[in-house]
């Protein structure tokens, strides 16, 4: 039964993370609501969102935060404007009924990590949170701060350790 649950969660993650990234295509004509760096301006946040993902540093250039109906979602994008480039990465964390505290994937905190923007067509580039912790240490109407360490896994059962993760954002 576990493979079905993981596959279902994986399909939901693919749909969930595609929405905040819809405006990240570098071929946009400038009317898409992107800023000068190519980051979508909708739900844009300022601050930091960093981690060590499989031995490489992830340092988000674009950060989006959505808070609606008790849900806190933060999505970070690195290497913006490199559509289809395997160096482009994104990381997303979502917590339902968010409040300060500790949350664990896969159901307490939904975590998604992707190596490139084409992950929606290649599920092996997208990883879902399998285990770990997300600590939401500050959560107000206009800011959030936290740390995280998680293990993510793709459909091939390949795993990546995401460690030393932190975010400190205002929105």
Describe the structure.
With 171 residues, the chain is mainly β. The protein contains 1 helix and 10 strands; from the N terminus they run H-E-E-E-E-E-E-E-E-E-E. It has one helix at 2-18, and strands at residues 46-53, 56-59, 62-68, 71-78, 89-95, 101-103, 110-114, 126-139, 143-153, 159-170. Strands 1, 2, 3, 4, 5, 6, 7, 8, 9 and 10 form a 10-stranded antiparallel sheet that branches. The longest helix is centred in the first third of the chain and has 17 residues, at 2-18.
Please state roughly what percent of the residues sit in beta strands, choosing from under 5%, 5-15%, 15-25%, 25-35%, 35-45% or over 45%. over 45%
Structural Rg = 15 Å
Round the mean pLDDT to the nearest integer and report it. Answer: 81
Largest sheet: 10 strands, antiparallel
Instruction: Find the count of extended strands (DSSP E, 2+ residues).
Output: 10
Task: List segments where confidence is low: pLDDT < 50 over at least 5 consecutive residues.
Answer: 1-31
Cα shape: globular
| Gap between N and C termini | 39 Å
Order of helices and strands: HEEEEEEEEEE
Which structural class should the secondary elements be placed in?
Answer: mainly beta
- Number of distinct helices: 1
Helix content: under 10%
Features:
single chain; disordered N terminus; mainly beta; 171 residues; ten-stranded antiparallel β-sheet
Layout: helices, strands, pairs:
Blueprint: H1 2-18, E1 46-53, E2 56-59, E3 62-68, E4 71-78, E5 89-95, E6 101-103, E7 110-114, E8 126-139, E9 143-153, E10 159-170
Antiparallel strand pairs: 1-2, 1-10, 3-4, 4-5, 5-7, 6-8, 7-8, 8-9, 9-10
